[in-house]
Fold these 3 entries.
Entry 1:
Amino acid sequence: MEVCYQLPVLPLDRPVPKHVLSRRGAISFSSSSSLFGAPDPRQLSQRRGAISYDSSDQTALYIRMLGDVRVRSQVGFEPERRISHPYLCIDFRTLHTRLGYGSTSASTTPERRVHRLLSFQRYLHSSRLLRGVPQQIPLHILDEDYTGQARCMLEKVGNWNFDIFLFDRLTNGNSLITLTFHLLNQYGLVELFQLDMVKLWRFLVMVQEDYHSDNPYHNAVHAADVTQAMYCYMREPMLAKSLTSCDIILGILAAATHDLDHPGVNQPFLIKTDHYLATLYRNTSVLENHHWKSAVGLLRETGLFSHLPAEDSLNMERELGSLILATDISRQNDYLSRFRRHLDQENMCLSNASHRHFILQMALKCADICNPCRPWELSKRWSEKVTEEFFQQGDIEKKHRLEVSPLFDRAINTVGNIQIGFMTYVAEPLFAEWTRFSDTRLSQTMLGHMGLNKASWVGLQQEQTSVSKEAEPSSADADSEGAAATTRRDSTTATAAGGTSSKEIPQGSKES
């Protein structure tokens, strides 16, 4: 298969020295580093993944409800109950199928032992690519019409109303591969970093494979959507004139891999089911650490950066991890406070490598939760998908008699109330500060969409409430009318039979 792109190569800010990678954007990761976004080790050991908050801070409380197991005074379960619900009895590969979300035959097949050194998706695929076994569904089995439409969409990949769902259909479900490759090539990074085309393509294929297609939300399409949003942010004037080639490739790769091998459940679920990943990462940014390590594993397995000096390759992996770890929702307030403090003091200097890295972290955080800022049709579809994934986890917790996580019980929550709370306590504060940093047309467009989307959800909630209130008295009236009709019918029948009303009929006669 031949992939041909004839796109202009954007000029870079400085010439790149030997070995392609320069140390201009390198960041020290020693214990004494003052890297923006890196937590204080003393605080990390004390909090163990939790965020400090005041009881009146509704934003912090909502964030805890989304992704922090310590939302209640009681953490997880008692030791005896934890032992009664070990993780090993719950196989992520059959979570949704057992509940009827996938094939029913999967629940009858014997469970295979999970190879923990591989991701769950890699275990399912059994490394077919490395063993030379062809894919079940070859890539890009598309006619010229579909391929042409996909290329036309790529010409407008920087538009905020880019429809990633349509693009995924036009690329036969390969939106993440196609989009990431296009962006790397458009920036000239393939040639600049001397990336081997075969290794790059295999890396992107393996990345897409490691996303769970059974997840309603955390799948490869979400990763492609975040990558497209990240590209929009990096094109903003303040970033476009400051980011180096190293920053750009890290931003693109971090967006593409930020949820790699996501199991479709959140960190509290992993902790309270004694998942080995929770133990491995000490209940701290469990999923984000796993996404990062999974990405590093694929980089090393494919040897994508093996031609670079070892020190530069390690720095790339560390900075990639620093970006991915910033997407931990439980640390939302930490990053937002730092961002707000720098904006208040007006001391953000993008010529400083650590400051640029911090802005990339904030850009990736914005890209990760930008769904409320998309046009209504796209935003509504993403909202329904993420809520369904929440509810599926709640169903799993009910099935295994686990404590149901807040916001994850479909019996007491709706898409609307979850989205309104998310916009109010998570999205709006973040994008308000981003607009202070980069007050552009794109930022104003995002705030405008979010305001309209929130109003739409509020309207839908009010409409559902009014309908439910109208249904209650109507049903009561129907019941009373039915009872009256029954009484009249019984009275008529009794009168015709014996000349007395039903009230005068003796109990014995009534029973007989």
Note: The first helix runs from residue 41 to 47.
Entry 2:
Amino acid sequence: MEKHLKNILVVSFGFFFLFTAYGGLQNLQSSLHSVKGLGVTSVSVIYAALILSAMFLPPIIIQKLGCKWTIVGSMCCYITYTLGNFYASWYTLIPTSMILGLAGAPLWSAKCTYLTIAGNSYAEKAGKLGRDVVNQYFGTFFLIFQSSGICGNLISSVVFGQTPKEMNISEAELECCGAADCRNMTTYDADISRPTETLIYTLLGIYTGSGVLAVLLVAVFLDPISAHQNETEEKKISSFWTTILSTFRHHKDIRQCLLIPLTFYSGLEQGFLSSDYTRAYVTCALGINFVGYVMICFAAANSIFSIFFGKISQFTGRNFLFVLALYGVLFEKHKEAAFANYRLWESLGFVIAFGYSTFLRVYVKLYIVLAVLVVSMVLYETVEYLESKNSLGTASPARQKPAESLQNDQETQL
């Protein structure tokens, strides 16, 4: 047990240190590199590359390198993006964004594979149910991993809070913040809200050190499990092509098609939060040093209400708390294809949100996000109506069997 627990903690803290750097840096891109939309374009490239990576790379790389070294190699790719920010330009951020995006899917797939194999291996030796142990491992992982959002944002706010300049924003300037978003974006990057180069390099140095620490932690202390992977190598090769085909064939299910706007909205909304909200509402009105504090509040509220809604779901039912493991419940027999579609359409939402960030005013984007949300909810209720018709006279599928793959919902993060 101690050996297995050690490996789970090594993976968890490795991801904690890695995403302390990446998460905090992503939230600053629209504020740090806003000239001609360089920052948001780089993030858009990340998610576009992630879509391609998710469809082709994970099985191939994991078979060649094993879970441990896939994780190590992918983490090194994340560090290149941080290094690219030291001298931010189209020639440094865009290539490193592509490298990071391509590494994202193998990183998360290798992590999932490692935790699943480790959990089943320990369960077999201890005479426990494999599913229960795997869920405990994933719970431990996400408990530690989600803390990286708080830590990374706190670091950025503390570092940028050391600036000797204080923002003195007039009422006229404040009117150009928020939904109005009427600042001149060609000069916005050089205005008073931008921290000094010394503070920027200090933050990037901390983030680089955090990423390097993650790589060393996993490379030195994580035990390889390649022997287990070799036993199922042929199965993985076939499942790779099966997954690709089943991902697209799954659109024959009308429920999957009706849920596309809702999944797309998830990425669109998160993209708006990370790019436009942080720049137009926080940096513009308060200063870039407040971005971290605001995102900490978001992350904390997200965690608290996730626990709260999880507790009351047994009393309210799925129709009220539809976001909890929705795909796992509706597509219980085709989870792999369903979650592949989830990642595909959510990533597309991210790409579009970051892609049009520099071309449209914030108030236009708000109308777009609101319109997609309304359409999503109408179509979601249509899915619930179809489900209720199919389950007349029988118990609700959500009550017959709880969702087994809650962790899949949270793996859309890089």
Note: The first helix runs from residue 2 to 26.
Entry 3:
Amino acid sequence: MDKKENIDIAFKTTGCTWLSSVSDQVGVPLDQVNFIACQLFGLAAAFWFRLYLSPQRATPEVRHAVAAVLGASSVTFCFGWYAVHIFILVLACYGIMIKASVHNVHRYTMVASIGYLTVCQVSRVFIFDYGILSTDFSGPLMMITQKITSLAFQVYDGMGRKQEELKDDQRRLAVHSKPSLLEYLSYNINFLSVLVGPCSNYKDYEEFIKGQHVQHRLKRVKDSSLQQNGWDKVPEPSPVRTVITKLLVCVCCLLWFFIITRAFPIKYNVDPQFITEASFINRLAYAFVSIQAARPKFYFAWTLADAVHNAAGYGVSGVNERGEVSWDLVSNVRIWEIETATSFKSFIDNWNIQTGLWLKRVCYDRAPFYRTPLTFVLSAIWHGVYPGYYFTFITAIPVTLAARSVRRNFRTYFLSPRQLKICYDVVTWAATQLTICYTVMPFLLLALEPTLKYYRSMYFHVHVISILAMILLPGKPRSFKPENHDLHSNNNVKED
């Protein structure tokens, strides 16, 4: 291997180069190969963690220590010396956790973690000059920022506020004592979630480490339901079937990536010849197909991370309608709900779910005013400093407000008969998917110039329609009473 090839490998990853031959053989960047290798190792380690390091065999301290060491090893393997940024952030914020007043710990932690993340994001832009690696140290840094700030707010709720001041969700998640250094390290850099998340709540993670997770989750259902369906007789359900199902989804996503994704590159949307020669409808169609093709890489990463958690015995949320144990507590994506979403809100609620919950808990539920705009701004800052991120999230503000207004004013007229509701769903599905394509395109293009080029080629039509809908539609819909059908048939229609 000559010097030039070594330089190429160094650019492909900031971490270990042991798997460079695999990268060359499969034609996948080395940073992605390292990521997948670590996640597969994490999957095997998770089964071992559940079976041979179970709470019955090992103390919580041992489980915490092993989870943290494996996590630290994973980020070091993937990112090399850049992993030091992760350790600096975690240790600095633990210092804030210990030293700061419980009345201010959430503020200081938010400023420190978001500030450090932003500094790293800025340096990444200038260092790589938009030649961003598909996986880099900012990914784990983003996940850890979520966990650090979530815990800080939960400590504030548990130790700095009165219980009657808390919402039900805040009361349930409140932490009433500051964690030890080992607990803090384990929660933030454990091998289950350190690479790609998702962010789980500290109390849930502590229950998992102590072996109380499954029992507490199922006990909640038992206490609130008279129908046992036999689930309460199985104290420790096996996750094997769920893990296999999620791994099959990952395989399908990989096949989709190699067969479809590469055939529809995102950057072709701003190809000058394509913009000049293709009609508006053709450009709209290609944007739709290329965005659809880009999603499976996110599905793959999030579903694999979910499977890793489940393999360790973590992720039970309760039971489903059939009385079966549900393993979706830390799920980050609901693929079917995304692909069939008929509203902008429904899409957002099922995409990057744990990040959405984090934004809701640290910003939306606590902001005194302008909750939706502030939440989107925090989301943009958290994602990074590429202009495309800000275009996406700022565009999402009028789109979200307009979608709410349209839904309030028109949905009632199309709930029945059933044929009319089906037509309404088809139209809103198409509108939602095309709007999503328009909104998230800058997120994938990243830079300012291609973003503006794309929006100009699309005549800013979604921006214009959204703003007009906000201006022209009334804030409250007119009352409507259908004359020839029964309203009772629609009482249980779920709001998207």
Note: The chain is about 65% helix and 0% strand.
